[in-house]
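Q: Sequence in, structure out?
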Amino acid sequence: MREFIFKANKAITSPNINLKDLPGSCGRLDLVCRCVSDSLFLSHDIRRDTVFYSVLCGPPNPPVCIKFVGSELRKVSPDERNIAIFIKKALKKFLETEDKDSWIESTPGIYVRKIGFKDLIIEKMEEGKNLYYLHKNGESIEKVKIKDNPVFILGDHIGLSEEDEKFLEGKAIKVSLSPLELHANHCIVIIHNILDKL
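A: Exactly. Output:
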């Protein structure tokens, strides 16, 4: 199983999503949608061995985490607008549910929950997963042996905070895919390619 955790610092946590303005009024929700698409979709197929988490940290109800399970997804297509519609449904379901501390299924394969970035990382550690933080100043991916059940941690265009980075020290191996700053969704594609060839 491959897992990705993406921290979306400004992504909206309300179902009032303007599908015509995902980058602006929705706090760069377009980045979340691109990462969902690149983590889960192949040409004419879905990656059933992949789970993608996005921790939304924007207004008005942060944090909210949305989980996409490749093996369970139905009727989702890879374009940003379609994915945004499913995120909108998940956030609506979240608002309507009393027990926000447990995973709530909004549509097949898409779950929503009140959990922050650090708590999600701790859960993954408790599950015995191997954590890798993708950062241009990390150790070159060619020198790192990726162990079974990897979880890859990514920041958005703002990146992780200094506090988040300190929190990850000793918990996640810092790995670099390039000396250049890449888009998070491009990093996901590169990681899939590396693992596909192993």
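The helical segments are 29-40, 80-96, 117-126, 162-168, 184-197.
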